[in-house]
Amino acid sequence: MADHYDVLGVARDASADEIKKAYRRLARELHPDVNPSPDAAERFKLVTHAYDVLSDPEQRQQYDLGPQAGFGAGAQGFGGFGDIFETFFGASAGRGGPRSRKERGGDALIRVEVELDEIIFGTTRDLEVNTAVLCETCNGSCAAPGTTPVTCDICHGTGQIQRTVRSLLGNVMTSSPCGTCRGYGTVIPHPCPTCQGQGRVRATRTISVDIPAGVDTGLRLQLPGQGEIGPAGGPHGDLFLEIKVKHHDVFSRNGDDLLATLEVEMTDAILGTTTTLKGLDGDIPVEIKPGTQSSEVLTVRERGITRLRGGGRGDLKIGVHVVTPTRLSHKETELIKQLAKTRKQGPPRLAHFQQGLFGKLRDRFLNF
């Protein structure tokens, strides 16, 4: 890389005014509005960069000293005390180096709503994700097409600036990240115009996701490598899907079991009947036995939800609710009276406590 003093045509001990005058003279000569030649444009960039460095007192001092400046005889003989130096000054001499521009991308979280019937056997969803993707213009290099990052002329590619610090132990070399290149060891004179030197852009992409059977509200699914891409084309982060199962008007869930309430007419409960119910995964034949009581639970095996871990399915549990008619015709009323006389039932009375009955009632009313 050309020496900044040579580029401006000044001596190494030139004053700030001399550097400014040299820059103004060359800028008037090489500016693209005055001199349209390609060579002049390249020289103008070099002159501008040289002036940016030498016009800043701190950067000029670092440039003059170089990355290893100050490490001389006064610092020799203390190699065995590296840990002590690191304790006092944060880093020992010679350690560290340029860090990579490529970093891991961030994770993303998307909430996905699924229907109750979709989680019986699982489903597939196409999701649109707004995320960071690789910049196609620079392919992650961060530099404009036809250009490349260049070695930082302050730290000379090390990514570190070393300084000599006087201490009780003598002159000690300390290292810190270079402020010009931010520790990368390179600078990008011409950033990519599409991604502004980030190596990635925001875009919407569609991904196909398999949602397994048996998921429940609050469960998070991890999709490795499906998150946003990192800066400068770094590794992708992960995508997390948080599941929410929508409410269903007829069926509810208890673990891997499905729950429902079946309203049965009083006559059907007395005489018994058969019916076919419309389930989430097809028709379900159900038998109502004669004398069926309210709060009884009918169990239909293997018609629940497929278990998330392990084979098989849960059951469908149907709580029976016997409907007592509230409006009867005159003829219906007479028939009921005749039935009551025939059975010769006594008045209502308290029965023995039935733990199972209250358990069924509690489960049915809490879950339905």
Structural class: alpha+beta
Q: Give the full name of the CATH homologous superfamily of the largest domain.
A: Urease metallochaperone UreE, N-terminal domain
What is the string of helix and strand elements?
HHHHHEHEEEEEEEEEEHEEEEHH
If classified by CATH, what would the architecture of the largest domain be?
Answer: Sandwich
In which range does the helix fraction lie? 10-25%
Number of domains: 3
CATH class descriptor of the largest domain: Mainly Beta
Strand content is 25-35%
Rounded average pLDDT: 84
Shape descriptor: rod-shaped
- Using the coordinates shown, work out and report the CATH topology of the largest domain: HSP40/DNAj peptide-binding domain
Strand order of the largest sheet: 10-11-15-14
If you had to describe this structure to a student in words, what would you say it looks like?
The chain has 368 residues and is an alpha+beta fold. The chain is built from nine helices and 15 strands. The strands form six sheets. The chain has a four-stranded mixed β-sheet with strand order 10-11-15-14. Strands 1-9-8 form a three-stranded mixed β-sheet, with no helix packed on it. Strands 2-7 form a two-stranded antiparallel sheet. Strand 4 and strand 5 form a beta hairpin. The chain is rod-shaped and about 125 Å long. The two termini are 78 Å apart.
Briefly, what is this?
Helix 2 (16-30) packs antiparallel against helix 3 (38-54). The chain is rod-shaped, with a radius of gyration of 40 Å.
What are its keywords?
four-stranded mixed sheet; 3 domains; alpha+beta; single chain; HSP40/DNAj peptide-binding domain; three-stranded mixed sheet; rod-shaped; Helix Hairpins; 368 residues
